[in-house]
């Protein structure tokens, strides 16, 4: 397998990242608006939306660094557009991408199925939840708040980022949008 990034890899990863940076901006408005009515730590069940680019980028590009790159660039775009957390989303985006990236690395960038995607989503969500536990909720109890928060963030990310990222990759491949990538060449012939 060739792990060297091509120009098309960089362009597509960047497009995914920028698109999700805008999605993050809109999601921030909902999360800090109507969804604020959900009591903490329950709000973490909505967390997975912020982790989709890490899983999607890795599933589409299938090269080292794709999860980190797409999540980090999406976080930077989100920070530049403005959000409730400011620049703290940038180091968090790096850790979220790293959470997903480690799963693909452990599997030597050879497994890109649903189970791998789900695990990568959960790992990214756990990384995000742990970051939040220290950055935003340092005075809260681990037993009654922080562990449930991390668990809910991981569960949300397993379903939304892992399952959603996998489904989105399959849909893009079926549409022919990923024909220049191994992920696009796996689509079922009709």
TrEMBL record:
<keyword id="KW-0472">Membrane</keyword>
<feature type="transmembrane region" description="Helical">
    <location>
        <begin position="107"/>
        <end position="137"/>
    </location>
</feature>
<feature type="transmembrane region" description="Helical">
    <location>
        <begin position="7"/>
        <end position="27"/>
    </location>
</feature>
<dbReference type="InterPro" id="IPR017195">
    <property type="entry name" value="ABC_thiamin-permease_prd"/>
</dbReference>
<keyword id="KW-1133">Transmembrane helix</keyword>
<protein>
    <submittedName>
        <fullName>ECF transporter S component</fullName>
    </submittedName>
</protein>
<dbReference type="Pfam" id="PF09819">
    <property type="entry name" value="ABC_cobalt"/>
</dbReference>
<feature type="transmembrane region" description="Helical">
    <location>
        <begin position="39"/>
        <end position="61"/>
    </location>
</feature>
<feature type="transmembrane region" description="Helical">
    <location>
        <begin position="149"/>
        <end position="168"/>
    </location>
</feature>
<feature type="transmembrane region" description="Helical">
    <location>
        <begin position="68"/>
        <end position="87"/>
    </location>
</feature>
<keyword id="KW-0812">Transmembrane</keyword>
